[in-house]
Amino acid sequence: MDTDVSPMELALQKRLEKLQPKAKTSGFLRGVIVRQSVRIDAALANGYSYDEIAEIFTEQGIKCKGSTLQKYHLQEKNKGKELAIPSLTEKKLSTQTKADLPTKKTHSK
Predict the structure, then answer these.
(1) Verdict on whether the full-model pTM lies above 0.70
(2) Maximum CA pair distance of the chain?
């Protein structure tokens, strides 16, 4: 067993042992993108790419890739569209009259 430990390694060991758990900020980036969605739309309309906008996020201390920004932004934009599509229910279907339903044609021999 090697007991020859350098002072640098001992200092590293002490520092690592003192580390406290980091607070998790689950969903932080997604939340920022949602709140800045209108401004992201404006930047895109002005000719900026998702990669260029992501660089601005990173410059401000919010680490982000263009592909992640695009994914979260488009998911947020499409959220409203999904809710706008009405779905048919049994009640709506049962309000049809017999005249509205397709009829079967029978062939006689």
Answers:
(1) no
(2) 103
